[in-house]
Design a protein that fits this description.
alpha/beta, Rossmann fold, about 50% helix, globular
Length: about 160
Amino acid sequence: MHAFDASSLIYAWDNYPIGQFPPLWDWLADRIKAGNFVVSEVAFQEVRNKAPECAEWLDEQQIHRLPRTNEILQEAMRIKGLLGIVDDNYHSKGVGENDLLIIATSKVHNIPLVTDEGFQSRLPDVLSKCKIPTVCNFPQVNVDWVKFIDLIKASNEVFH
């Protein structure tokens, strides 16, 4: 099972148009219906705001949305503390509140996260500048993550 971040869903929607890549979207639909691909409620709302047609397609496939729970909120607060973020003083180049909830959802459910946020090869000088993959790699967070294209490659599917 994998949880999708909004960045990967929007990336796929924008870069692999359903009209030109129908076998890819059929595969995604099959994986969604089998319960192998899920999305946090927070990530789904981001998709709805930025790519409403994609959200409609996800609704049609009946993608399972993982709700925000107290356990997820507590985990997001813990991660926020690790990053040294106080109150709502998020850095514009780093994770935001929704990102922390998305990471926390994968952590609590112990499922890898599919994200296409930029990978930072070295830790930023200010931890609040960390992006999703970097936060996932923190030993205290330890959430497996993969880019959308790497998820496709790992599937060994051939799309005709």
